């Protein structure tokens, strides 16, 4: 018998709190009236036990390693779809028909250029500027060039703004790379699809044309699909929270980019390569780095391992690891870091500390190895994560906006641990 209420006793009083259930068996105690009825808040630093919203976009089962977008298994989508197709699914809730996908692609083609004035932005970033700071800054500035999104947003839809964001962030990413290496910009081509265009804009040169390889395009599609959404993670929650104040979509996405930048989140794919290079350079002293990660007095962690929700193998990491092997075999590539990664995974899987804490490779552990094989610079790996996550951020922001019943600014409370009320001390009396 599944209970419909939780009871909470405070002193002599007992309260009944409704239990809400998701379509996949997930359940929560609804505390939306708790403070009003009891005068008590809940305290949940890091929101380990707190659901911030209801959503129909992505479902995770951390115990079983399940990830579905709009009900479709990630394994099926990564195997059968392009990133553009999955972006449409996440944004609209259905897999597109041939004509719907064609129209979506046309919109992205139409909006792929940056306003020429924006291209001067890249002239004024220092050569070593972080691609994530460039992305966050430039995305935020899109509102200055396309303020009409406010009207479109007011009447719903956001079709143009969505296509604009998906297409222009890819252009911003590629342009920032070209500027960082002093090469001429390569403009998006109407003849190429999303991933082909990105690779061409990154690596084509007037004197050395880039040969687009289907294996690389396929691997990039898979990687972007696997990053496309992940329910209420740190950066998605940031996008929702910023949007809940009424800030425009560009500003909300820019905030999401900033949240993703952190090494505990999307910055981990870059940090994994640094960790693997350190182990490789340190005569492959795996045990030294594993011991550091286990040492409570050392803040060092094995980046690419562990997850707030997955307490088993991250399903995305499984697919990425297989894609790694495939692309390396097909293109006859070699990278000592792939061997280091596999040996580290094997050693960790045997170690009681990691087993006890359910620490497995997450989405960031192998993804950087593939980006490296594509020739993408390490400091752009978090940008790749952002390009993949963009459809999810937009869909989650839109879902938040359309949730009229819960349409309110996000504003958590706190438990105060500071000074009690005290008298003001004039300057001349201060010690
Ligand atoms: C992403 O939320 C999402 O969905 C995120 C993401 C997405 O798609 O949006 O999946 C993308 O961000 C993946 C995670 C990328 N980050 C890393 O790989 C950084 C390394 N991992 C960790 O820092 C950590 O595992 C987190 C941040 C991912 C999760 O942290 P939690 O849930 O707050 O867990 P915790 O820090 O409380 O760790 C629990 C225990 C602790 O030990 P004890 O205090 O119980 O003794 O596990 C230990 C931690 O010290 N631990 C690790 C570890 N991760 C956790 N110890 C060594 N190495 C690690 N990587």
Description:
This protein has 431 residues and is mainly alpha-helical. The chain has helices at residues 34-38, 74-80, 83-92, 98-110, 116-119, 131-145, 149-154, 159-180, 194-203, 214-226, 234-244, 249-260, 268-281, 286-294, 315-330, 336-349, 352-356, 363-374, 381-402; strands at 5-10, 13-21, 27-29, 58-61, 66-69, 72-73. The longest helix is centred in the middle third of the chain and has 22 residues, at 159-180. The radius of gyration is 24 Å and the shape is globular. Bound molecules: s-citryldethia Coenzyme A (SDX). Residues 46, 230, 233, 264-265, 268, 293, 301-309, 357, 359, 362-364 line the site of s-citryldethia Coenzyme A.
Radius of gyration: 24 Å
* Alpha-beta classification: mainly alpha
Largest sheet: 3 strands, antiparallel
Written as H for each helix and E for each strand, in order along the chain, the element string is EEEHEEEHHHHHHHHHHHHHHHHHH
Give a list of the ligands.
s-citryldethia Coenzyme A
Number of strands: 6
Q: What fraction strand?
A: 5-15%
> Number of helix segments?
19
| CA distance, first residue to last residue | 66 Å
Low-confidence stretches: none
**Please, what is the average pLDDT?**
95
Please state how the strands of the largest beta sheet are arranged side by side.
1-2-3
Helix content: 40-55%
User: What general form does the structure show?
Assistant: globular
């Amino acid at each position: 018998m599944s209970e419909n209420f939780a009871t909470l006793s405070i002193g002599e009083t007992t309260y009944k709190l409704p239990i809400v259930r998701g379509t996949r068996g997930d359940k929560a105690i609804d505390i939306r009236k708790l403070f009003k009825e009891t005068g008590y808040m809940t305290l949940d630093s890091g929101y380990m036990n707190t659901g911030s919203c209801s959503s129909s976009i992505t479902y995770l089962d951390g115990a079983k390693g399940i990830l579905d977008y709009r009900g479709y298994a990630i394994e099926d989508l990564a195997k059968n779809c392009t990133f553009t197709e999955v972006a449409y699914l996440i944004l609209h809730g259905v897999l597109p028909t041939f004509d719907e996908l064609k129209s979506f692609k046309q919109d992205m083609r139409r909006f792929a250029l940056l306003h020429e004035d924006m291209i001067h932005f890249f002239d004024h970033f220092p050569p070593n500027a972080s691609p994530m700071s460039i992305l966050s800054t430039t995305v935020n500035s899109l509102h200055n060039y396309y303020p009409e999104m406010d009207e479109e947003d007011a009447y719903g839809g956001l079709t143009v703004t969505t296509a604009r964001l998906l297409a222009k962030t890819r252009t911003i990413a590629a342009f920032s790379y070209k500027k960082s290496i002093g090469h001429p910009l390569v403009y998006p081509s109407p003849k190429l699809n999303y991933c082909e265009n990105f690779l061409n804009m990154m690596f084509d040169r007037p004197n050395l044309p880039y040969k687009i390889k289907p294996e690389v395009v396929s691997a990039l599609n898979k990687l972007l699909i696997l990053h496309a959404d992940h329910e209420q993670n740190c950066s998605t929650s940031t996008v929702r929270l910023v949007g809940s104040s009424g800030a425009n979509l560009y500003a909300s996405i820019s905030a999401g980019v900033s949240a993703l930048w952190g090494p505990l989140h999307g910055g981990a794919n870059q940090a994994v390569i640094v960790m693997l290079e350190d182990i490789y350079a340190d005569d492959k002293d795996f045990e030294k780095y594993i011991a550091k990660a286990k040492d409570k007095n050392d803040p060092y962690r094995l980046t690419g391992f562990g997850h707030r929700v997955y307490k088993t193998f991250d399903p995305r990491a499984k697919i990425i690891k297989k894609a790694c092997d495939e692309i390396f075999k097909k293109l006859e590539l070699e990278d000592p870091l792939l061997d280091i990664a596999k040996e580290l995974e094997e050693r960790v899987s045997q170690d009681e500390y990691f087993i006890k804490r359910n620490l497995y490779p997450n989405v960031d552990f192998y993804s950087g190895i593939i980006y490296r094989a594509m020739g993408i610079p390490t400091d752009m790996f978090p940008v790749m994560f952002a390009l993949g996550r963009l459809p999810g951020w937009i869909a989650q922001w839109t879902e938040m906006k359309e949730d009229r019943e819960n349409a309110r600014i996000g504003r958590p409370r706190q438990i105060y641990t500071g000074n009690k009320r005290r008298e003001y001390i004039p300057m001349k009396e201060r010690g």
